[in-house]
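dumping this here before i forget
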Amino acid sequence: MKRFEMITESEARLLEPGSTVELARGGFVTPLAQDTLRELRVTVVRADGRDAAAAAAELTPPAEVRSIAIGSDHSGIALRRALVAYLRGQGLAVQESGPSAPSESVDYPDIAAGVARAVARHEVDGGIVIDGAGIGSAIAANKINGVRAAMCTTPTLARYSREHNGANVLTLGATLLSTDEAIAIVDTWRGTPMTEARYVRRLIKIRGIEESR
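structure:
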């Protein structure tokens, strides 16, 4: 039986119709490969017993972000409210968390963890966390297994974080960005899918690091 660390669409095309292959523990099947495997009636047996489709969902963020959790500490209230209004105006389902007034001081790790857990549990398609600089929230969110948080200050970084790194949480610095700048970053971030197999292969290694802790 052939054994794969990862099955791409081009590799799937080379398999015998009706055959059975083994996917290594922590392995991954790309979305296009899954379609080809179904067409060829190829059975994929996972060494770790996990479902291939579920594994794909865990690794790659949804190509279309339709629901989002957004939270902020006291320093990001104004930007949070502006983004919530904008995203709801775009038709997204938004879960909002954080204080309602600057006098309500909160600790950013608590907010970041709440948003990150909602993403890790697949309750929402993505998350946004806002604090003063965005750095601390990224550090905190990345402690949750399955979360890849990136602090972005430009649309270019937002695109890379999604396309190359599969970021499912975006963190923003309220003291570093105007509302218009933040909206441009968010639009690019949620509108960029992760599709290339070579990038997914690297996420497999990141998951391996998580599981080895």
